[in-house]
Description:
Number of helices: 7
Strand order of the largest sheet: 2-4-5
CATH architecture of the largest domain: 3-Layer(aba) Sandwich
Shape: globular
Strand content: 5-15%
Amino acid sequence: MMLPVSNKTQPLKVEMCPITLCGMYGYDQNPGAQQQMAGGYGEQPLYPEPSPPSLADAVRAFTTGSLSAEDFQQIFATSKVYCPRGDNPGFLALHNTQQPVIPMFTTLKELRRYAGKESKYFVITGAEVIDLLPTGYGFVLDMEGDHRMVFDAKAVEQMVDFAMRRMYG
Length: 169
């Protein structure tokens, strides 16, 4: 069976699909699109979501005693951590301490203060730090900062235990 063929060209109709990359891939390439849909075009939502505290704020609060260890660990797990790097992949460790520690930073500004403006770095989450940190190593957050925090290898083990209990019960 042959289908009829027409020489006439018809205009192509393009329809917009309501599915966004946000729903498919977990991110939105058009920031603000969700707000426009929820509250009308260009309107601010009536009850904006509170933003979680930054890791730098959590470090300050934890070192002053106004944040519990559990709350700090929850914030740390989801926060970005800036790590200096060398020419090869992996953490850079300091071995001139009682136990080897890895310098890490809450912001790029803190990392640049420690390692210089042209330093190389990578960014991972706190949960990835806990997962990837070599056994027997601790880490230092904001080494040159006002609220430096040192986590020795024992503290890191406790953080791993906390993460496992939280994840698996």
